[in-house]
Sequence to fold (312 residues):
Amino acid sequence: MSTIFAPFVWVFHLLEDIVSWILITFHSLLTPVFGARSGVSWALSIIGLVIVIRILLIPLFVKQIRATRNMQAIQPQIQALQKKYKDDREKLGQETMKLYRETKTNPFASCLPILLQAPVFFALFRVLQGIATRKPQGLFQNNMELVEQARAAEVFGVPIYATLLNSGETPSQAATIGLTVGLIIFMSATTFITQRQLILKNAAPNNPMVQQQKILLYVFPIIFAVGGIGFPIGVLIYWSTTNVWTMFQQFWVIRNSPTPGSPAYDAWLKRKEIKKAKKGIVEPTPEAHDVIEEPPVRNQPKKQPRSKRRKK
Fold:
């Protein structure tokens, strides 16, 4: 078993090294400004970690939004296939995969950003936990002085490694409870808002997937709220920051690449019409001296047909 899991353990330790290296690098840049033991330095270092990770994940995030949009768009076709091949699951699977290939839809692309962020999340959790217990992980193992600086760092009087569960072990229990509860609420609220943004703005009406998303709309915030009681302050800062990043990034993608038939798509069409109207070229009215007067046409008698002239 150890041989099977060895590659996964190696990758996880590598992630701990990468996460700790990013934190230490940002901390060294911020130390001359805020000080080595400042909570501001370490909090901003965690925000810097978010920025680096999210920039690397931008291509996958765009794919996630587009995959979600494509999945919503082809739901009627999938339902038609389910009705047509309800008694032949093998044929249904083949036709569904064929539809995915033809529409260039990857049903798993929407999960990639979350799946790739999860190891980073747990690596940061382990690094902060190592700081709290003085059992450093990643590159902090080579520098106990940095570990002590991180332990001494406080955000509003609360250590960055503090959790709601161990609030009694911190210098100020009341401050720890207040800050952790505030961050947990903020983290859960931003999770709710980002999910709601997808449903209200980028979901076509009468789409079956919307019902599933509505369930997740309430499930995810509850999961984060319950799990948040064991998250260190640094992890809560990380997840809250990444939620804010997701919110604005998602807004930009939905605005510029909306799902056809969704409210965002209707708004996109209206913006295009307004832009076309603004770019429309209005022909100038000709000046008086530019007008060329045509010679008057004389009233000439109408010629009668030959048949009538012969009668006369």
Remarks:
- Residues 285-297 have pLDDT under 50 and may be disordered.
- The chain has one domain: 2-269.
- The radius of gyration is 32 Å.
